[in-house]
Amino acid sequence: MLVIRFLRQGKKHQPFYKIVVVEKNKGPHSGKFVEQVGFYNPLTKEKDLNKERILYWISKGAQLSDTIHNMLVSNKIIQGEKRRVHSMKPKEEEKPVEESKEETAEEKSAEEPKEEPKEEVGEEKSAEEENKEEVPAEEKKEETSTEEKKEETGEEENKEE
User: Fold this and answer.
1) Which of 10, 49, 61, 87 is a plausible cystine mate for 38, CB 3.0–4.6 Å?
2) What stretches of the chain adopt beta strand conformation (E)?
3) pTM of the model
4) Interacting residues of 26 by C-beta distance below 8 A, sequence separation 6+
């Protein structure tokens, strides 16, 4: 099967592309192509497309690479919509720029720890002291539950006697 695609030429950091008709199974750097139908220089935006030969090869069943298809659509050589070449993020993750800026400002204010009013020096309590106060309260609850159990068992003992 034939494909119309780019064949990269030129030096490092100075790309230059030939637009060629090539067998699909041939590697892009093999240099063996059926016919050159144009060129494209991305640095100068210069391009030359042989419209007649491109349409001839398309009529013979040659497929177009996505980038070549988009180039031919933009130059109005063929009709149709452009294809997506680069992958896109899912639309759910995308947010409008204005909203994301506002949200980030709100998030930053929410993330900043709010300073609690400081108590007077005499009234400040360390974390250890607060824990000590809480522990006896819990112990009191446990004591009352054990006392209730003793009373219940005491009542049961009295019944047995």
Assistant:
1) 49
2) 2-11, 14-23, 35-41, 46-49, 63-64
3) 0.52
4) 32, 33
